[in-house]
Amino acid sequence: MPDRPLSLVISVRVLPGHRDAFVSGISRHAAASVRGEPGCLRFDVVADSADPDLFWVCEVFADEAALAAHRASPHFAAWQREKAAAVVPGSQVDRGGPLIVSEAR
Predict the structure, then answer these.
(1) Which of 20, 43, 73, 82 could be cross-linked to 30 through a Cys-Cys bond (beta carbons 3.0 to 4.6 Å apart)?
(2) pTM of the full structure
(3) Are 91 and 48 within 8 A, CB to CB?
(4) The pairing of beta strand 40-47 with beta strand 93-98
(5) Which contiguous run of DSSP H or E holds residue 66?
(6) Are 8 and 94 in contact (CB under 8 A)?
(7) Mean predicted lDDT score pLDDT of the chain
(8) CB contact at 8 A, 15 and 83
(9) pLDDT for position 1
């Protein structure tokens, strides 16, 4: 049985006054991931409707190897440095597992 795609859901809180910088940086990172990595199938960023400094990042990778390639990419390293200046230290929570159901229009 082939591997299922791997889904990550990440929550992160942005430092007050850094929302625009975070959105700009993660937008570049998302575009580089989806356009430059065949194994990055999806990269969505959701703003929490009740808290302007809370974001949810949803990523889907073809498999574990694709996730490892993503984390080894130069743009991932650049984003990690940029993100460190914009988010509350220790606020990021990562959850992941096999993608079970996916429907889209």
Answers:
(1) 43
(2) 0.92
(3) no
(4) unpaired
(5) helix 64-72
(6) yes
(7) 95
(8) no
(9) 45
